[in-house]
Amino acid sequence: MKRELDDIRDGLIITKRNVMRYVRLPQLIIISSIQPIMFLTLFNFVFGGALGASAGEKYINFLLPGIMVQTILFGALQTGVGLSRDLNAGIIDRFRSLPMSRSAVLTGRTTADLVRNTSTALILLITGLVYGFRFQNGTLDAFLMIALIVAFGYAFSWVAAFVGLAVKDEETAQLAGFLFIFPLTFASATFVPTQTMPGWLQTFANNQPVTFAVTAARHFALGTPSDGAEWKLLAWIVGLLIIFVPLSIFIYKKRA
Amino acid sequence: MRYAFELNNVKKHYSKVKALDGVTLKAEEGKIFGMLGPNGAGKSTIVKVLSTLIEPSSGTAKVAGIDTVKNPTGVRNTIGLAGQFAAVDDFLTGKENIQMVGQLYGLKKKVAKARAEEILQRLSLTDSANRQVKTYSGGMRRRLDLGASLVGKPKILFLDEPTTGLDPRTRKELWDIIRELAKGGTSILLTTQYLDEADELADRIAVIDYGKLIAEGTSAQLKNRLGGDMVEFELKNKVDFQAALEEVDRFCNENRQADEDELIIKIPVKNSADDLLTVTKMIDEAGIKPSNISLHKPTLDDVFLALTGKKTKPEADKKARKGPKK
Question: N or C: chain B end with fewer CB closer than 10 Å?
């Protein structure tokens, strides 16, 4: 029990350290919010007219949950970038030489990124509301949508943490993340319904976690049918955490 | 007797590279132990093994009698580590940095804060205590980094090239702090690629090259290995240099050092005045007029050259000048 308490205490100390970086470098949050706002604006006004018809819904209502999922995933990639930056700056060597919890550097990093990701998601949500997005299902479902998206981002942070520790280099960590995030977000129900995709791609798109996340988010936001996507997503979140939390901690401990 | 740290035939192999190739060392408590060697010699690897960052491939390492592999937490409670990269957080203030490390040593928040203030005062950083570290100069960052390693009141301090890349004045300031720490009873392992630094600070010096210990002793002992003083000739051109070298080799070719680029020949001599006269006379009779002749005590540079057959690597200095990341 004492050990678990120490883990939490040290994790919070590191979380605070990482959050301070965002607080004292607010342009980081602002710039990282501009990109998704730009996406939202472009997709809504450029493609909105054409795509809205096939979505069968006011397009901003269809689009916002999708963009939120995409934004959270890109945000989660930063976990890997931040870790490799700390590795190269030598501060992780200092942490590893201290009699502190062996998981704290990672829980502190992923928790701080959870905080950052939640604030980015809220900024995006406010922009969506300005563009005419409206929740159709009440406050509880609105809350569930945000919670689910943010939890998915948290699980992905641990994947990114593993990648960041494995590749050891900021730029490689970023690029390696893009490699799997781009196909995952575009070959999904994020921007358009999957029905118009070729059969083989539909099979992939309909059975991957980003589509589950987007479908579940829309389900909570708009009341559209989810076909159990929220449970499938929950299974993915739990599964990713079960695999990547111990794996990341292991590689952190062993890293020379 | 208990040692500050001990290495027992420690090897560390990375796929093909032998970073450490069987190092055995013992350092007395309460002293400054200097570790000297060019970049890539294995100094940092030794520090990493001792500070539990990496495990040796074979052999054992102990710090304050505690095995680094069997009880890493015990070791971590005993040590402080400061490195050439000045591992402090840019976005925290100086005080927050030290306080954070203090809390990670398990100190209560209040205690950590008080310790931080005390340390900042000791390192003359009180004026900038509440400024973010990104505004600090290189020397201030190093002092803060050193400060962070002190917050746990370590019995043994590992300083991995603490002055690399610093200007001479800042180096001297850091030297004073290191001396003061040693006076207070802290055992210190100091790695450096600067010979004068080891000469100045260390009670004992180990010379490391290619992952091996090639010499160990006090500065005076290492210098005595070369015999007495050094006679140094500086020549005007390559022709003179070759001719002078022939004369010198007739006189004695043991341990003499010849630097063709700098046109310098150094000869260790036992009976300084006599030998100086003899060899100078030989060169004079060969019709060579050196541009400079001098007699001096051997420096650690001379020792290093004699032991490893090369100068401290110039590329090491280049890297040092680039210094740590901003």
Answer: N
